[in-house]
Amino acid sequence: MRPLFVIYLIIFFFVPGGFCFGHGLQHTEIQGGVGLAVLYDDGTPMSYCEVKVYSPADGETEFQQGLTDKNGRFLFYADVSGEWRITVDDGMGHLVQHQITVDPQLTVVPPAATGYSRRQGTIIGLSLIFGIFGLISMFTGLVKRK
Amino acid sequence: MIRVMFVCMIIAVICLSSINHVSAHEHWLDADDYYVAVGDTVVLSLCSGHEFPTRAMVLKERVIHITEVLKPDGVSEKLSLTSGQKCWQASFCGHKAGTYLFRFTLKQPQLKEPKYQAKAIIIVGGVDNPERYQFGQWLEIVPEKKISVLTTGDQLPLYVLFNGARVAARLTVIPEQGRSFYLTTTGTRCASLPLKRAGRYLITSRYQGQECSLIVLFPDRGSEN
Fold first, then answer.
1. Do the Cβ atoms of B117 and B212 come closer than 8 Å?
2. Complex confidence, ipTM
3. Distance from CA of A140 to the nearest CA of B (A)
4. Where is the signal peptide (chain B) (predicted)?
5. Which is more confidently placed, B10 or A127?
6. Which of A50, B108, B136, B155 could disulfide-link to B192, CB 3.0 to 4.6 Å?
């Protein structure tokens, strides 16, 4: 009598449980990724702005879309190597377009040092202006001496 | 040699002054008329662009936070928008004489505070009340004098409020015609806007990550006579 009761119990508790786990889910924590942090001119993060990511394999349909976080950051996981295009749009007229190169190991290729900050640009611009006019004045001075 | 150096410096100053903030992205609330009769319908436009008054783009619907009018009796009413060409539009009819204060704010839905507040003041039936020029919320530019009585050559005192308290801020003034310029206001002293010519003036300011704008229109009163 007792073993039969135990068998009933096993069937009662485990069989429905088995069905429930039939659609079970798995999750694994992942690290790394490819990402971008976007700030306004004044250093304020572009928080909760629309992001679209385009894979090198398909430049028209978004590979992923979402929002930047509170700190203006967005991460995604590249599945092929090549140039990934990311757009960040705050809906108020500010749009950032950026390309990230991913190598065959699916790691980000660091971008070459490009561009200058606004301050650096101003200083360079001023230096160029003074340099050009300095050369002109030197040249005209030499011509006058002759 | 000194003359050449002087010329160099002048050119450098001109080049630097050409890098102005007026080319920054601004938003503004514009009306087809700012001084109307009772019962007249006003069409308001929510505009965005780099060069006022040229409208460059339509704001995304998801960032339009508040669009409302504060009526002379202190009651606010939501404005319903329609998508127009290069801007959102709303129409309003003032059935009572008084000062009507309009605004729209821009905000990412997840943020608590708006990033931008644009205002317009419309005088209906000639009743102009400077006490009705402010919402007392977020960042806003407030004229201290009646705008309806000003004429060319006058000065318009302006101050900046942040949640109802006066703050020190820089104002950018972009006239409809002519060059833009800057004004500064302190917590106690108003900025003084010289009205050199008739037309619309877009005034903008920025404080603690928020931005705001106000349009004031000075009609050519000389041509009315």
1. yes
2. 0.72
3. 10
4. 1-24
5. A127
6. B155
Half-sphere exposure of B213 (CA within 13 A, CB side): 28
pLDDT, residue B189, reads 94
Residue recorded with tokens 């080049």: B15
Put simply, the answer to whether B4 touches A137 (Cβ < 8 Å) is yes
Instruction: Give CATH for domain A30-131.
Output: 2.60.40.10
Residue B22 tokens, joined: 């007026």
Residues of B in contact with A141 (CB under 8 A): 1
For chain A, what are the domain ranges? 30-131
What pLDDT is stored for residue B90 in this prediction? Answer: 96
Question: Rounded to an integer, what distance in angstroms lies between the CA atom of residue B30 and that of residue B177?
Answer: 16
Looking at residue B201, what is its pLDDT? 94
Rounded alpha-carbon distances, angstroms, from residue A62 to A38, A85, B165 = 19, 10, 45
Query: What is the model's pTM?
Result: 0.76
Omega before A45 within 30 of 0, i.e. cis: no
DSSP B166-189: EE-EEEEEEESSS--EEEEE-SSS
> Which range is least confidently modeled, A14-28, A88-102, A126-140, B107-121?
A14-28
- By C-alpha distance, which of B50, B33, B49 is closest to B41? B33
Give the DSSP per-residue string, B80-149: PPEEETTEEEEEEE--SSEEEEEEEEE--TT-SS-SEEEEEEEEETT---GGGS---SSEEEEESS-STT
For chain B, 225 residues long, the average pLDDT of each consecutive 10-residue run is 62 52 73 95 92 85 95 95 89 95 95 95 96 96 94 93 96 92 94 92 94 91 54
How far, in Å, CA of B108 to CA of B14, rounded? 38
Asked if A95 reaches chain B (Cβ–Cβ under 8 Å), the answer is no
C-beta atoms of B56 and A89 within 8 A: no
At residue B62, the pLDDT reads 92
